[in-house]
hexokinase
Amino acid sequence: MFAVHLMAFYFTKLKEDQIKKVDRFLYHMRLSDETLLDIMARFQAEMQKGLGKDTNPTASVKMLPTFVRAIPDGSENGEFLSLDLGGSKFRVLKVQVSEEGKRNVQMESQFYPTPNEIIRGNGTQLFEYVADCLADFMKTKGLKQKKFPLGLTFSFPCRQTKLEEGILLSWTKKFKARGVQNTDVVRSLANAMKKHKQDIDVDILALVNDTVGTMMTCAYDDPYCEVGVIIGTGTNACYMEDMSNIDLVEGDEGRMCINTEWGAFGDDGALEDIRTEFDRELDLGSLNPGKQLFEKMISGLYLGELVRLILLKMAKAGLLFGGEKSSALHIKGKIETRHVAAMEKYKEGLANTREILTDLGLEPSEADCIAVQHVCTIVSFRSANLCAAALAAILTRLRENKKLARLRTTVGMDGTLYKIHPQYPKRLHKVVRKLVPNCDVRFLLSESGSTKGAAMVTAVASRVQAQRKQIDKVLALFQLTREQLEGVQDKMRVELDYGLKRDTHPLATVKMLPTYVRGMPDGTEKGKFLALDLGGTNFRVLLVKIRSGWRSVRIYNKIFAIPLEIMQGTGEELFDHIVQCIADFLDYMGLKGAQLPLGFTFSFPCRQASIDKGTLIEWTKGFKATDCEGEDVVDMLREAIKRRNEFDLDIVAVVNDTVGTMMTCGYEDPNCEVGLIAGTGSNMCYMEEMRNIELVEGDEGKMCINTEWGGFGDNGCIDDIRTQYDKEVDEGSLNPGKQRYEKMTSGMYLGEIVRQILIDLTKQGLLFRGQISERLRTRGIFETKFLSQIESDRLALLQVRRILQQLGLDSTCEDSIVVKEVCGAVSRRAAQLYGAGLAAIVEKRREDQGLEHLKITVGVDGTLYKLHPHFSRILQETVKELAPQCDVTFMLSEDGSGKGAALITAVAKRLQQARKEN
Ligand code: BG6
Ligand code: BG6
Ligand code: GLC
Ligand code: GLC
């Protein structure tokens, strides 16, 4: 009995001595609680640095956005292929995520070796090898005939701008293949797979880090999981960060997973005070000296080596093995993490230690074995402590982001060190709980690796891809081919000729109305004129003073509102209102009682028998006043003036806005023979040879024709390019079946087309979370100015979202992207259609004059042309392409069409005068 006690005493004493000895020797590796709290604080600062746009470039902890935005919600389903590359084992898997609400995942997998010559050879060969393994897997599993989405778990630091991309920042751990750094890994793999085109039909939809895969795997079972940690060959963590804190990604809504790449913590010297001579020596002998310094103190690839370096040093100092060293102890990598784990086993640990040391050619005493075991403990404990400090920093950040006093959360865990080391998990958990007492943390081991999670990410990506296809299908309806545009040009040309010919004119949808404007101002015009400008966005009354010879004009004008009930009331009310506005204006200008000549810009189709007569054929755009169609609008205006009986005016000319615009520009540039409006409505006028105008007597000279091309297509000739959305817009308009071309091109309707598309996409569940709001049901919410803002290149996504929110549309950032695309498709088509129409005219003018080349100026006006960021450019490009023999200059009408109307009035007045004198 006594002997047993003595033995026990002896052993305890021996153990104490050995432990003290090692403790003293490795004093620097034992981290106090204060030190851990300090490291935790440093890591918090590092995270902040990595997240900031300006500080990220110099941050060592890269905090990489992963474009994984949500944890699985159980709705994921389908069959996926998965690759898992970068941990201790390379695996190919097929994952089946089942549907019908049941969370059920089935996996088939196969491990493949990763020989050093592959992972440290040439990059192309590495990816070819991976593709070969995948092909082999598909062959042996009989999967060759099917197309699969593929998720790639790639456990290295990658910069991503989308899920299906990964620019390798640097290799870590055991990998060092040439020519891969700074390239897109997804593309390289896709290229390598081309070789197996016959066998492999896969679409790489997602690249995820192993931490992300792990988090997602665990989150599938526990929705509280919002952190993933790997303590394996390497070490790293990811977590869900608030978008508003991620400077590097646009948008501030919801969360995104951040791959911290904490392994690089300390690469800027931030941990020098805690690194030891062994850490430095290990680093110097590694594949990536100076890099991944935190990882090198923690992870499985390095722990054994640290132990070896310590033992060697202790032996050299005579503190172990009686000062003897074996040659094996000198060999790098001879002690592995699995050895460390075995030596630290609770019961068999000491025996294992003896065996391992003996295998290394050493002859360890009992005391040596105890000491070596303690070295292992100190090294692996330090590892767990360091991980705990960094993890505590993440948990604190999560808690603060959520503004909670206590955080309940789950951390998904994986990695061989964590899994095989007998004490590691326990120690880690304990220290974390000590460092963050206000967090209730559940540690959940990922049983099925990171690929299950990667499959979840791929499932979401594949759903997004399918949705994208649906959206693209809708947008494709608005993409016109060159042939289609030429078709429009040709048909427009036919319609122009139809409208000009006496026989076909009555049936023509492009009305080709003679305007009785025969020439351009010659600069001799002068005097004071009144002008009215009705039919665009604004109703204006103007006073125009023309000085002869100077080509100089002074304009005074006032904008008046025309309330909707007047636009759509009775004709008498409308004209009384107009006269009321004139009276106000004259009053305002101090011209009461002055009898001035007046030019009336009336932007609707009128049949004219002279310059001062115009019978309204039918209302277009937003007007619908009764008893006007079929009436002479000049007479109606005169009668209204008479009714008021306050002043008299000499109404000399009624002109369309296109004609006014052409004149305004023609005053500056005599080459201007076309007037174009791209505003509320769509129309064009041009100077035609009298001999071609069968409706008007005489063959001499030219006359301006108001084409009223807005009615193009009313006979169905462009129905092949009209979409269901165009039809819906038409049906909801004031004039169904009429002005089909205008309804595809002008400001009043583009927003409506956009709205119809958005409604449809929402119905399909592709936008606004499938909810059609009251706002979206409201006609006219997308005015031209909003479309123009949304499409501005200078606007960031957030600003687009703000505009949509102002419009009452509660959109996410993804929604905003789609809305912007929809606007772009609709306005682009409009600009192209305008281009095709205009090309038809200029080509006609060129041919009529028998010219090889035509040089011509087009006067343009209208809010769509003026405000939209791309419209004018696309219109001009299209004309250039479709009418290559015409050199078309676009001249913006700065002063509106009122000036042109006044000039026409001045010319008409001069002619009137001359006639009287004769
Ligand atoms: C596996 C995961 O379980 O763990 C891998 O599937 C991951 O994606 C690995 O890289 C990490 O551990 P180790 O020890 O293999 O590096
Ligand atoms: C104005 C002209 O500048 O543009 C009007 O003076 C014309 O006559 C108008 O109708 C067209 O643009 P919008 O966008 O106002 O319809
Ligand atoms: C290395 C890699 C990192 C990975 C970790 C665990 O640190 O850089 O991306 O997550 O190892 O495998
Ligand atoms: C409508 C009108 C037309 C006008 C155009 C631009 O198409 O019918 O007369 O020129 O809008 O305002």
Q: What stands out?
A: The chain has a mean pLDDT of 94.
